[in-house]
Structure prediction request, 149 residues.
Amino acid sequence: MLVFVASDHAGHHLRQSLLAHLSARGVEWIDLGPAAPERCDYPDFAAKVAHRVARGEGVGLLVCGTGVGMSMSANKIPGIRAAVVSDVFSARATKQHNNANVLCLGERVVGTGLAAAIVDAWLDAEFEGGRHAGRVAKLHALETRSERS
Ligand code: RB5
Prediction:
């Protein structure tokens, strides 16, 4: 499993903590920045990760102040199922049911210990398929379908 990781300035410190956690777990990762915690715009870094994930190269982990801006941005890219999560139950469920391929966290929302537990739950969970597969297919159909009355 390869994890593409990025943040904005507000997620910089949690990103560093999570990179260390991934290494400790033996998970391979590629850090897409930014290199320093200088002010930057979360859509730029969400896009870097989302395009790699959409190409099927791995999964994504994005951190900003709340995780919300990262998830909104990543979900603009076709093929992305980004979930912003702040609890372990939802982290597991969003893989099992939604097959989330990008996890978003908020440095201003969760501490480093909880964030690591959330990442573990998401990485360790398996997509359950079955009825959920049809729903995920419908979710992606929304990317191209125009509104019908
Ligand atoms: C940056 O101040 C903050 O707006 C950003 O990190 C994020 O929380 C947006 O959703």
Observations:
- Residues 8, 10, 42, 64-66, 68-69 surround D-ribose (CB under 6 Å).
